[in-house]
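Troubleshooting entry. The earlier prediction with glycine gave an output that would not parse, so I re-checked the input for stray whitespace and re-submitted. Clean input:
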Amino acid sequence: MQLLLALAAGSAPADSHTVTSKGGVVVSVSPPATDVGVDILKRGGNAVDAAVAVGFAEAVTWPEAGNIGGGGFMLVYPGGDKEPVVFDYRETAPAAATKDMFAGGANFQSAKTAGVPGTVRGFELAHKRLGKLPWKDVVTPAVTLAADGFPVSDGLAKRLNGVLDDKKTTNAEFRRVFGKADKWKAGDVLKQPDLSKTLTAIAENGSAGFYTGDVAAKIAAEVTASGGLITPDDLKKYAAKERKPVVGTYRGFDVIGPPPPSSGGITLLMTLNMLERHEVKKHPWGSPETTHLVAEAMRRAFCERAKHLGDPDFVKIPDHLTTKEHAKKLFADFDPTKATPSAKLAPEIEVKDGGTDTTHYGVVDKDGMAVSNTYTLENAFGCRVVVRGAGFILNNEMTDFNTRPGVTTTAGGIGTDPNLIAPGKRMLSSMCPTIVAKDGKAVLVTGSPGGRTIINTVLGIVVNTVDYGADARSAVDAPRLHMQWFPDKITLEDRPGFEELKKALTAKGHTIAKAKQGDGHTIHIDPKTGVRTGAADKRLDGKAGGE
Ligand code: GLY
């Protein structure tokens, strides 16, 4: 009753990580960015306006992954009879890139690993197509946050101290912009005046303020000084793309995800299609039986990912991958009693012996339009090179290509053809901003950071919601598992009973390790009442806010 009374008046925060509302909801890793999104909704902006504003705000307040120097995917579910759409703003390889430029190994802290950034063109395209408020209104909150500064959280303080303590962080501009005479601590204010100027150029001139003129000249100068390949011409030619999402079904729900060049949507749907053939909820989530079943489906889906997926503008992706018939074939040899060795799945791929930072946020507005956005610099703080005088970090996304042609390793390196480097090509991603819908209405908006673990984090949240009927908080909190074909092992998040579970799975032939997965900020919309529950993940910082 109390909840209903509170909802009549607006949103009801249970704690800063959880909110319920009949109006708009925003979930993200960064409390000031969530506040920006809620404010945009209160000013009459729709979910796309809020998502673009949150994205620019996180470029200021979550510099390890929020960005204007990287790229990502924005999935928009307008609702009703309007088609969902994906804005693909993945980075591209510069024109001077070559297939084997990293064959001898890549220095992850070098501008040579930077792809041509896509975020600003991507946000501009999404806003032009579906936004309501003027462009300037959605960029300006980020301008202000950068100029006036914001109090860093304990989590951000720790991450800044970590990257500054690392001797591999050699770029002087990075140290000038993010450095501090003593250690960062919660509550210290981070001001970024150069970034504020760059964002002002974007607010006033749109993407031209980034890809041409003064900012573009600064990027080119920095890249030349730091050994990178991006040229002014690469910047001028960069185009964000509007793509049809991957759409499938799982137990009567529509599941919508990003298409290639992200592997997220196809890999998620292949895994769900295999699981649909079994009664997952016969055993509890986290039981040996369910963990084995889910991991075996993941193993097969990730092998398919390695065989087939890359930039669709460069490689032909088979049409049948997400069909139910294909899942039947893939899972025909599933054995509930024992693990299938990964090496058996693709004998045609020679396998030799042998960073995961991104951020996700979601928005639902009062009218039910939903946005699921994941974007990244690849590793935390990208290649740790800040563009001199422009205040933002360059990505190291080129390392998401298969950098060693022909070299697929038991350690997880992939060398298959579809994702080899070529000029202008987009590197394969695992980003998986996902929306689950029923009867034309979004019911779940989710996604995660974490490299290849992203897809399996999303899978866990979807399965907990659909199969087990978990509420948003429980679905996000539930311990996660990951298996990606190679390495041939399952990683499990720590949990009560970890050792017993490990023993049971080891007896089936699995290798088990302990590892944390990414923060999957999620919104659930009750299809009957329309009440939205935002659950920001507690694994990291995070805030759920409502109108
Ligand atoms: N850089 C992480 C991904 O795109 O999957």
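This one parsed fine. The longest strand covers residues 71-77.
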